[in-house]
Amino acid sequence: MFDLQQDVYRPLWLRVVIVAVCLGWAAVEFVSGAPFWGILFGAVGLYAAHQFFIAFDPKDPDEADRKE
């Protein structure tokens, strides 16, 4: 879906904010009576949480250069 393994997502605060905004917006949509958008943003938030906190492999930029 999205490549969330890029170096731009290395800062922890950025990953936390992205997941919190997606899941927070999903809650807003559910409360306002729009379950389709709530499910959509909830799924994006859960996918981002998985990619950022479970599957994320932060590498030093020097390591990535050495492998190429």
TrEMBL record:
Key words of the record: Membrane, Transmembrane, Transmembrane helix
Transmembrane in keyword set: yes
Record flagged with keyword Transmembrane: yes
Ranges annotated as spanning the membrane: 12-28, 34-56
Protein name: DUF3329 domain-containing protein
